[in-house]
Amino acid sequence: MSAPISTAMDNLTAAIRSNIIPNQEYLLQGSVLDSAVEVLLHRLRGLCDNVDTGPETFNDHEMCFSIRLLEISYCLQIHMIVMLYVCFRGAEQPLLLRVRRALDYQDMPWQLRYIGQPELGDKSRPTIVRSSLDIATSNTVVDFLTELGCRLDFEYIARGYMFRKGRMKVTVSKIFKMGQQGKIPESMEAISQSYLVELSVLAPSGQDAIAEDMRIFAEQLKPLVQLEKIDYKRFVH
Amino acid sequence: MQREEKQLDSALEAIIMRVNDLKTAIAAMIFKLEHEYETLNWPNFLDNFALFQGILSKILGHDKAPNLRNLTVLPLRLSPEKDDELLRLTEGRIPTFAHDLVPDYLRTKVEPQAEQKMIQLEAKAANLNYETSHYTKVINHVWDIANKAREEWESEAGSRATQAQTSSTADTHALVAAVGMVNSVPSGMMVGRPGNQQQTPGQGSLGNPPMGQMNKAPSAIKTNIKAASQIHPYR
To answer: Hey, is the C-beta of B169 within 8 angstroms of any chain A C-beta?
Structure first.
């Protein structure tokens, strides 16, 4: 029994090196007006896999935290943070972390998610590609992040439907504003008169073929929804 | 007199030869019809008729022939007995030269059987004329219906292209910014303001309005807009 004891850290780095972690998110975004959302849901029901069970609904609260990397360098032994560090190679920008919880299933684990900078690529790339890591956590994660020095940037409520088509995930969600001090407001105020439509796939890096599948699927939803690569950094001037 | 007879003989010989040609041509056509019906096409089939027509016009157009109408054919001897010579000459078609058959064979019209069939076919053709006109009427009616439906589709598709838009670029940008924005949302992109809510879907579909105008819609809570226009909505 002389085999070296492998630590979680070794396992993690090995997994990252051999490219088996689905840490790339391929993404297309669009929106549909409230008046046409029924038509879109109907079409998605026909196109997607979960025909018989109908779409899954969700009602989630998402909080976005940010932290400067230098501030977390002292707790690098926390494996998740290490993983994030490996993925997030730019040092200057703040690290963004998102916490998401289901409002309709209070006892479900919470989700901590890191999303990297979106790469738009050139015209030959059909989708946005961004790093993405998910981890299930307990409901104390907000306290934990606050202790680390993370700052709550913004939060919102997303409520809508999820469809699956093979590895692809389609969400149709209404985005609502959060009330003061993180309270769920009694009458929710929607961001706009449209539903946000997102088509995404999580895959290990280098699997660019899936992006082509997504482009073809997005074509099938036109002209109802224009799913596109949207660079929201363009909005910041 | 003798010269005329000779002429008649040679004319008859020529006619018999042509008739034989015609017979082989018809036989060839029937053979084709029976054996090559899978590969036979209309142009080839109709060629046969052109051939028949050519032969027929030659039969009657022999230049030195005396006028056959002026001559009479007289059956000199009838017999109910079987005549082997006749059988051989007609290739097994007519066994006897008897009184019940001769009038049919020597008459100048077509055979009674063929005549009867001809009459039937002509009647059918006349009937068919009526039916075709009937069908034409029905087809015209269907054609009209299809045309009307097409016009409706086209006008509908045209109006759909201009009117009913189902998504708005401005809303897409607003939503994507709302869930993905890192630091600040520029004031023009302020979303979820009451002023924005008054935008009807119809207006939203007009395209991508200038960002700065989105706050200008009249609102009951104007002070709110001013106050919040510099801050992120979630902060």
So the answer is: yes
Whether the CB-CB separation of A67 and A97 falls below 8 Å is answered with: yes
Q: Is A156's CB within 8 Å of B232's CB?
A: no
Which residues of chain A are within 8 Å of residue B185 when distances are taken between CB atoms?
Answer: 235-236
- The model's pTM is 0.53
From B46-55, B68-77, B188-197, the region with the lowest mean pLDDT: B188-197
Question: How far is residue B204's CA from residue B175's CA, in Å, rounded to a whole number?
Answer: 14
Q: What is the CATH number of domain A22-235?
A: 2.40.320.10
Q: State the Cα–Cα distance between residues A154 and A177, nearest whole angstrom.
A: 10
Does residue A141 surpass a pLDDT of 70?
A: yes
| Residue A232 touches partner B, C-beta closer than 8 Å | yes
CB contact under 8 A, A226 and B186: no
Between A164 and B65, whose confidence is greater? A164
Mean pLDDT of chain A: 81
Q: Per the CB < 8 Å rule, is B186 touching A154?
A: no
Is A185 a residue whose pLDDT tops 70? no
- A47 contacts chain B (CB < 8 A): no
* Amino acid A2: pLDDT: 54
Topology (CATH level 3) of domain B1-71: Methane Monooxygenase Hydroxylase; Chain G, domain 1 (1.20.58)
The reply to whether residue B172 touches residue A30, judged by beta carbons under 8 angstroms, is: yes
Mean local confidence (pLDDT), B156-175: 75
Q: Do the beta carbons of residue A177 and residue B192 sit within 8 Å?
A: yes
| Domain edges within chain A | 22-235
The one-letter code for the residue type at A97 is L
- Facing A191 at nearest CB: one of B164, B169, B174: B174
Least confident span in A10-19, A56-65, A81-90: A81-90
The region that residue B100 occupies, defined by phi over 0 for left and psi between -120 and 50 for alpha, beta otherwise, is alpha
Report how far residue B212's alpha carbon sits from residue B208's, in angstroms, rounded to the nearest whole number.
11
Any CB–CB contact under 8 A between B201 and chain A?
yes
Asked if ipTM goes beyond 0.85, one says no
User: Is the model more confident about B139 or about A9?
Assistant: B139
pLDDT for residue A115 = 86
Chain B, residues 205-224, CB within 8 A of chain A, namely: 205
Measured between beta carbons, which residues in chain A are less than 8 angstroms from residue B178?
A: 156, 175, 191
Tokens encoding A219? 């074509």
